[in-house]
Amino acid sequence: MFETTLRYNSLNNKHAVEGEYPRYDSLIIDGKMLAYSKKALPQFIQNLNQERSLDYYVEPIISDFRSGDDFRYPDGTIRGWYDSYVNELGDPLKQALFDFDNVNPRHLDEEIIRGISRSVVLYQENFVPNQLKEESGKYEEVDPDEVMPKAVIPWHHRINEKSDLGPNRTILDTTKAEAMLSLKPCIHTTKSFIRDRSHRTSLVELVKDYDVDECFLLIEELGKHNTYESTYKDVIDLVYDISEAGVKPHFYYGDYFSNLLSYFGLGGTTYGVMYGEEYTETTEYTDQGGMLLRYYVDQIKDFLKVPAAVELMKRTDSAMCKCDICQRHFDDWDDTVAHQESDDPLMNHLQKHYIERRWRHARQVEIKSFETIISKLESDRQEYVYPYTNARQISPNKDFDYLPRWINAVKERSELVN
Ligand SMILES: [Zn+2]
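# zinc ion complex -> structure
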């Protein structure tokens, strides 16, 4: 099985997350959004759980405080959702954010690191069951085991250099001692760190030492438009080595390339309801409101603005997407553009279409051979590259070169395919 994990980090995406629940295996819920939406979200988890057994995780969030000031208002106080989260976790996190600009374990006393690590565990294991108990009163029994996360994700500190390994070990030691649930640690690192073979080995040793079955893997800035073929090969080597060591890695953010990694030992991938395929640390506050309407074009495994997607599909005479959502809502490609001007919630359809596509990608890599998947990518590339470069509505700054980079990287490592 290739686990699909949907990232739930905006309350605006409620309809897509709720409506598409048969089309993902698990949810990862933003820890600060949970703290903010403390009545509705636990209830939502319980309701979904009654319809099907819901596996979910809670994002530990603490790494957001590592640098920058995007989590503070200009007067220095902590912003809305972050503030709710910090209040739930209490001290020593709260005090540390009061005393210092940032919470970077490289510069913190070990006792503070241990204290914050423990509050992260307590929050993930107890917050949802406690909220539900409080809300239901004594009339309704809440079985905490039913509504607990699938595993605890320990606070992850980005590994830029080897000296970042120590703080991660302190966090993992403490979390392991504190947690009742199993751990699914997130190995959070950078493209430049994994370039070095001995660095990759140190990451493999880190996960191996904690006797876990699974881990998450977060390699920052692995966007398809700015990642070299050589980096993709480093990623393949790392995924392969972790999985050979007996731990199944899952991507913490992943585009279609992560599906190809299933042939090298990746156990699953994570994405948002729209975008959320890659992660870059933010250090300055930007208004995240007003999400752009983009259509995920499956043949190119990327998002395009709706009119650009329509132009590309018409130039290539492509049939309307076969997913349930597109079949139900769009008569033809022009109809998607027409929805932009109507009251029909186009954003909802676009999000659900994306969730459906990514669900199918996971099922494809489970049943199809490596060779079949690669030859399909190659034929899509041949068919779409010319219309793509000539489409007037696709920005000339955008290119389709990521597809050959993926294909070359996985082919050069094909001796590792298991
Ligand atoms: Zn569709």
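# post-check
The first helix runs from residue 14 to 19.
The longest strand covers residues 3-8.
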